[in-house]
Prior knowledge:
With 417 residues, this protein is α/β, with parallel strands linked by helices. The chain has 2 domains: 185 residues, 3-Layer(bba) Sandwich (FAD/NAD(P)-binding domain); 151 residues, 2-Layer Sandwich (D-Amino Acid Oxidase, Chain A, domain 2), CATH 3.30.9. It contains 10 helices and 18 strands. The N and C termini lie far apart (57 Å).
Amino acid sequence: MGFSGFRVLKEGLFGQKGWTPQWRNPDPKDEYDIVIIGGGGHGLSTAFYLAKEHGMTNIAVLEKGYLGGGNVGRNTTIVRANYFLPGNSEFYSHSLNLWEGMEQELNYNTMMSQRGVINLFHSDGQRDAFARRGNAMVNQGDDAELLDVAGVRKHLPYLDFENGRFPIYGGLLHRRGGTARHDAVAWGYARGADQRGVDLIQNCEVTGIDIEAGVVKGVQTTRGSIRAKKVAIVTAGRSGQVAAMAGMRLPIESHVLQAFVTEGLKPVIDHVVSFGMGHFYISQSDKGGLVFGGDLDFYASYAARGNLPMKEHVMEAAMTLMPMIGKARVLRSWGGIMDMTPDGSPIIDKTHIAGLYLDCGWCYGGFKAVPGSGYSFAHLLATGEHHAPAAGFRLDRFRDGVGLMDEEGTGAQHNLH
């Protein structure tokens, strides 16, 4: 089924009775060329690009719950490519390019809104750091504009510019950044993969990985054994647990990251705003709710819920940046399970077990990486070679320390002056 404005109008006039299911609900086959463990954004996009770019359709995506029920539906929906150091910057630039063509590619409304991302800075040192970041972004081929106080006030007049503790010195504007509807991204990739013959199998938990003489042979699931030539682990915060089924210990920790949404309000915030001193970020959804979040809860957990002290910390940052938010009522909060690597950068790589592959370690930025991750992982699965924008995301960098990728750009860097 194709989507169009005419089709939406027609269905509205005739009782919405012409829509059909967006994907099949097949039973698992006995064997596939590739089994993808994890039916979130990264797993579904991997399946889509395997079919679209490489013509591989004998593929199954196994999801223990329902498609899109994990982190892809538990985030603050931010899309950006404002990275600083080589390695990450090329990858997220590639991912943003895919975001910009996603709706046409999928024939699906993902509600992509390039409203712009503004990172505020509050000291001379932060200004210097963001000026360097902006130059790096422009050199990479992305956009960046350094704003002074007047420039920030023009875009964000509702901020507390008189705050003595955290004075606003300016901001870095990334106009091509913005937000998208997280559920729609998962649904769009699921629909696109299904249309190309991929089996999307829900309520199918993987309970074991079959390995013989160092070669993967398939998986054990709650719906029986499935043989496979290749197995791909794409399970976000559960990556460590799933990899343990293959006898692997990954260099990741799983932490909770909370997010919050208020009641629906009239349009007031038309950018994504990041508070540099409080690690707070906020945008407004199309339904009017203010969507915001802050730091990790900073304790290891597999529970998709957070703690009250971090809620208080996030609310304090919100009130410091924009006191007007104090009048909004918070409707709900939720937690996503972040698979955190030591250097803050992801892993897309083969393992020492032939036929077993990893896509994990996306930390707190997995949503904006969904298309780039799927594209690069599909390339690796199909060709055995790393896709150039993701060539640095190798597992062995944590063994020897060579090629570590400081995602925040705050670690040791040579020749800065």
